Amino acid sequence: MATFQAPKGTYDLIPPVSVKYLAVREAIAAPLRNSGYGYIETPGFEDVGLFARGVGESTDIVSKEMYAFETKGGDQLALRPEGTASVLRAALEASLHKKGNLPVKLWYSGSYYRYEKPQAGRYRHFSQVGAEAIGAEDPALDAELIILADQAYRSLGLSDFRILLNSLGDKECRPVYREALQSFLRGLDLDAETMRRAEINPLRVLDDKRADVQKQLVGAPVLRDYLCDACKAYHEQVRVLVTAAGVAFEDDDKLVRGLDYYTRTTFEFVHEGLGIAVGGGGRYDGLSEMIGGPALPSVGWALGVDRTVLALEKEGVELDIPASTSVFAVALGEAKATVFGLVTQLRKAGVAADMSYGGKGLKGAMKDANRSGARFAVVAGDRDLAEGVVQLKDMESGEQSAVPVTELIDTVKARLA
């Protein structure tokens, strides 16, 4: 019988590597929880229209990469290709914008799906941690999110990345730029699909990675030259606040990101060693109205967990991850029931404990103890228990001593401390 494998472009997270992913998620989430962001979780699939309207039909994400399907009941659904539209939909559905002070601050963590050509750092199933501040137009929010993402990366030990920053204007000034850019693009030698995209959203063409397209874009109108006074002032405030926080960035006139809903501030975290973005985001003041909600200016970002892990490996950063087990117990003879009870008591006392299963002998069980990474091994046989003691072995020093059963928990906690 043939064995099954994970689908192409996906990966399984298994120990010990999975612990690194959990640590990265925790590090990214920590600054958010410390800054008023509450956790939200949305379904893995949504109505196709949510992404078509919000992310944009002209984007590769919607037109080429989205996993869309029809249910048995005839609903048109899609596996979520990104998190912002889903989070905003959930916030609107729950009327979170009506229940307290704005902005509504939310963070999330989950899996996302895009049908892309698999390669390092680009998967069909990938993991992100994201943050959204919904319902307020304030440069301080844009700056806050950029600073929090930088803080998360720095806390992990990453340093070889750049922050790119740009403004995409708003509904007042972007139409003027759009017309100028479309006029420029119509004079280029572009294929029919690219020209179709240019008519829907010409900024998408600026994001085209093909060398022959980029070569023709030299001399294209720059959005910065078309920003209205309000957008210029807003962007300058973001720049000032980020700079005041000691976070370095680079202005990038060509940064547009791959989603249609962005307005004004847009930013990206590019890792030099990988040569790809490990995270990014921006302001999306019109998205709520696009998906049927009220005007709710908002800003957010998503950071790739798998890409962050790759960046850590590229920089040779080893995370300080504590062993998952502090005490490993080994029962000899008829002592298993008693030792199992001791392990249960240790766990209840907050000590991470495991034990040897399967009736292994002392040698095999101690190999398990070594592999577990536990600081201490508790070994007990019939004679030990008859004397009311267990043997407590320090796995680092090799020292071993008899400890009364009644004092085991206190002794272990004291030595771990």
From TrEMBL:
The keyword Cytoplasm applies. Its EC number is 6.1.1.21. It is an enzyme of class 6 (ligase). Its main location: cytoplasm. The keyword ATP-binding applies. One of its GO terms (molecular function) is histidine-tRNA ligase activity. Keywords: Aminoacyl-tRNA synthetase, ATP-binding, Cytoplasm, Ligase, Nucleotide-binding, Protein biosynthesis. L-histidine binds at E82, G83, T84, R114, Q128, E132, R257, Y261, Y262. It is found in: Cytoplasm. It holds the Pfam family HGTP_anticodon. Residues 32-322 form the Aminoacyl-transfer RNA synthetases class-II family profile domain. One of its GO terms (biological process) is histidyl-tRNA aminoacylation. GO terms for cellular component: cytoplasm. It catalyses: tRNA(His) + L-histidine + ATP = L-histidyl-tRNA(His) + AMP + diphosphate + H(+). Belongs to the class-II aminoacyl-tRNA synthetase family. NCBIfam families: hisS (TIGR00442). This is Histidine--tRNA ligase. It comes from Streptomyces venezuelae.
